[in-house]
Design a protein that fits this description.
Layout: H1 57-60, E1 64-67, E2 71-77, E3 86-91, E4 94-105, E5 110-120, E6 131-134, E7 139-145, H2 148-151, E8 166-173, E9 178-183, H3 189-202, E10 211-213, E11 217-224, E12 227-234, H4 239-256, H5 262-267, H6 269-279, E13 280-281, E14 284-285, H7 290-297, H8 302-339, H9 356-365, H10 395-406, H11 416-427, E15 436-448, E16 454-467, E17 475-481, E18 488-491, H12 497-503, E19 505-506, E20 521-530, E21 538-546, E22 551-559, E23 566-574, E24 583-587, E25 590-594, E26 599-607, E27 613-620, E28 630-636, E29 643-650, E30 659-672
Parallel strand pairs: 15-30
Antiparallel strand pairs: 1-2, 2-7, 3-4, 4-5, 6-7, 8-9, 8-12, 10-11, 11-12, 13-14, 15-16, 16-20, 17-19, 17-29, 18-20, 21-22, 22-27, 23-26, 23-28, 24-27, 25-26, 28-30
Length: about 675
């Protein structure tokens, strides 16, 4: 007889919760329970309603697989099979359980059953330890041990350290002078300045207009009017990412600097450095944009807000208190004037003939709480004072010091007074200082290459006027300009520029006014910038040559400008560390080896036309690059550009005025790279 098989679509339940179970468990083929007879009220198909019975896994014949900490366990209901009808076998990575019995008669008829289950053995389970047992309630248990060492083990974490690709970011001039620089790796200042000084020479060597390369680094740059934005990277960096980073750096600078000039960039150097740190971290660019950089750098601090609020509150209270006192003082003056008494004045401020309105106005306008309060001068008693006298030793102190010396203690007296006196001697103006005193000062910044060639030289000069007598306030100053090097001169805004151009006279535009008293006023400035080798005042040639035992170094100097007289010349040469002191050969002057700073100082008291050349020879272990950069310092009483004060006269009458001058020419930076 053919049995019609229903399509699976018709066997789906109409309501949720009514799912057939008989096809899935091991009771298939048995009679129905009483509770299952109710199913015919709902459907014509045979299924077990969800609410009909609530079996556990032992009732429905399903298996349980459990992974304990130390073993793998499989539980299976085999209530219809005897132990002889069951087989458990481990085959490769699987454990197989099979049960089968032939047809036999039971209370309901003839039945034959067979099942086959296959379980994947998890990793870490030892297949040789599988065991099986059958319980009294016909539950077959198959278990095996797990490898404890496979459960927990420490795994080393491999950390890949990528070398940084962005070494430094700098804003420099076209001559290679660093205005502001930020290093993202460990680099010395000398190394950075050397790389930037070499950058202008390399710009014209490559075919690209955005980057140039050397044997060790790559320069990625962008012009900013008179400056350059330069990134120094390794040659392994991605040039496209470097260009994108450069564009972000170039957009950051105008956010903080109104004009792209050296002075403006120097003024906002710390703001730029903070912004640079937000762009690059550990040599790699951060994923930030311009708006995020501004947000991060200008992030408000709660403590700062509280401090500002407290300070503003105190300042407001101080202003209110001073206004109140000013009103009280004004009221007291008015009352005194009405009663005919003498109005109260300001003790210690001199004349008391100021009107009450003027006095009140002055007090009202004083809003700074830090101003000292004005009090009437106290009358000093005629008797001896018991107050502490500063700067004088008491008898008890002298006695205590003598007692310590007698006991053998080494007493070192304070040198503060002596240092102060020494400082005053250094800073003391010339002895023959007149009421009209003029200072002619020059400062030089110079960078040369070790193989010769002037990279950059800048000389800044200024004439400062100081008048101490009011009768000498209306004067004119005649300048003797013998400069032939091309210095550019600039006068003070209050000085008559036309008069200076035509007659070389420095005078005020309004000749009825006086020069300020007791104030240093810069009346004339000049600037000389050049790359002409003939303008170098003092040339330094260093010739290091390697030998079998180290390096032989020969250093020579030559005074180019014979009209100069250089005093206290110190030539500082770096030497390798940890190799001992250098062996000095020929020497002009004196030398000093500082082992802590690893430098050799060559000292010459004077260099002039009679002593215009000299040399130093020494030997020490090292390489030729170890002896650079060389730094030079000196002072001179003759200026470089030969601009002097010739005469000072009164505006009225053109009579000469007695005046004094002092001239100085010093080094700001003098370096041979």
């Amino acid at each position: 007889m053919d049995v019609t098989i229903q399509h699976p679509w018709y066997r789906r339940p109409w309501f949720l919760g009514f799912y057939p179970y008989r096809i899935y468990d091991q009771y298939f083929g048995e009679h129905q329970n009483d509770s299952e007879l109710l199913s015919r009220l709902y459907s014509m198909f045979f299924y077990r309603p969800y609410f009909g019975r609530f079996p556990n896994w032992f009732d429905i014949g399903m298996s349980e697989v459990r992974m304990d900490r130390d073993r793998f366990v499989v539980n299976l209901d085999v209530k219809h099979f005897s132990p002889e009808e069951l087989t458990v076998k481990v085959n490769d990575d699987y454990v197989e359980i099979r049960g089968k019995h032939d047809e036999h008669q039971d209370e309901r008829g003839i039945v034959a059953r067979e099942f086959y289950r296959k379980y994947k053995i998890p990793g870490g389970v030892d297949p040789s330890t599988f065991t099986s047992s059958l319980s009294s309630d016909c539950v077959l248990t198959v278990c095996a041990n797990r490898h404890l060492d496979a459960l927990e083990r420490n795994m080393p974490i491999a950390f890949e350290v990528k070398p940084p690709v962005l070494l430094a970011a700098a804003v420099c001039t076209k001559a290679g002078k660093a205005v502001v620089s930020r290093q993202f790796v460990e680099m010395t200042r000398t190394r950075v300045e050397g790389l930037l000084a070499a950058f202008p020479k390399l710009m014209n060597t490559g075919k690209q207009h955005t980057f140039v390369e050397t044997d060790s680094v790559r320069y990625v740059y962008q012009p900013l009017e008179k400056l350059y934005m330069v990134l120094i990277t390794t040659k392994n960096s991605n040039i496209l990412e470097d260009l994108e980073t450069l564009r972000l750096f170039s957009r950051v600078i105008p956010e903080y600097c109104r004009v792209l000039e050296e002075a403006e960039v120097s003024e906002h150097c710390f703001d730029l450095i903070f912004a640079f740190d937000e762009i690059v971290a550990l040599g790699y660019r951060e994923n930030v944009n311009l708006a995020q950089i501004r947000t991060f750098t200008e992030m408000d601090s709660h403590e700062e807000k509280v401090f500002r609020a407290v300070r503003e509150t105190k300042e407001g209270e101080a202003r209110a208190e001073m206004k109140r006192r000013a009103k009280e003082l004004q009221r007291a003056r008015q009352d005194a004037e009405r009663s005919g008494k003498k109005s109260p004045g300001f003790g210690g401020f001199g004349s008391s003939s100021m009107s009450s309105v003027t006095s009140a106005t002055i007090i009202t306008d004083m809003i700074e709480p830090e101003k000292p309060k004005v009090a009437p001068a106290a009358v000093r008693p005629s008797g001896p004072s018991k107050a502490l006298k500063l700067g004088a030793k008491g008898k008890e102190v002298d006695f205590f010091v003598d007692k310590l010396k007698s006991e053998g203690e080494n007493i070192v007296t304070s040198s503060a007074g002596r240092k102060a006196s020494d400082t005053s001697k250094v800073l003391q103006p010339p002895v023959n200082t007149e009421s009209v005193h003029l200072r002619v000062e020059e400062k030089i910044t110079l960078t040369c290459g070790r193989d010769g060639g002037l990279q950059n030289m800048e000389v800044l000069g200024i004439i400062t006027l100081r008048v101490t007598d009011e009768k000498d306030g209306r004067i004119s100053i005649l300048i003797n300009n013998n400069d032939k090097k091309g210095a550019q001169l600039q006068t003070h805004p209050h000085v008559d520029k036309k008069l200076f151009t035509t007659e070389s006279l420095i005078g005020l535009k309004n000749q009825e006014k006086y020069f300020p008293l007791n104030t240093d006023l810069g009346v004339l400035k000049w600037r000389l910038q050049s790359t002409d080798d003939s303008l170098i005042p003092l040339t330094i040639n260093c010739w290091p040559s390697e030998s079998g035992t180290g390096c032989d170094v020969n250093i020579e100097y030559e005074l180019q400008d014979e009209e100069l007289e250089l005093n206290d010349v110190i030539i500082t040469i770096p030497v390798p560390s940890g190799v001992g002191a250098p062996v000095i050969g020929d020497l002009d002057g004196q030398y000093n080896h500082d082992s802590r700073k690893n430098i050799l100082e060559w000292t010459l008291p004077i260099i002039d036309d009679k002593n215009k050349t000299g040399s130093l020879e020494f030997s020490i272990a090292g390489k030729p690059n170890d002896f650079f950069p060389i730094n030079v310092s000196f002072v001179s009483k003759r200026n470089f550009c030969d601009i002097q004060v010739a005469k000072v006269t009164y505006v009225e009458g053109n009579n000469p005025v007695k005046f004094s001058t002092e001239t100085s020419f010093v080094v700001d930076k003098y370096e041979i790279l």
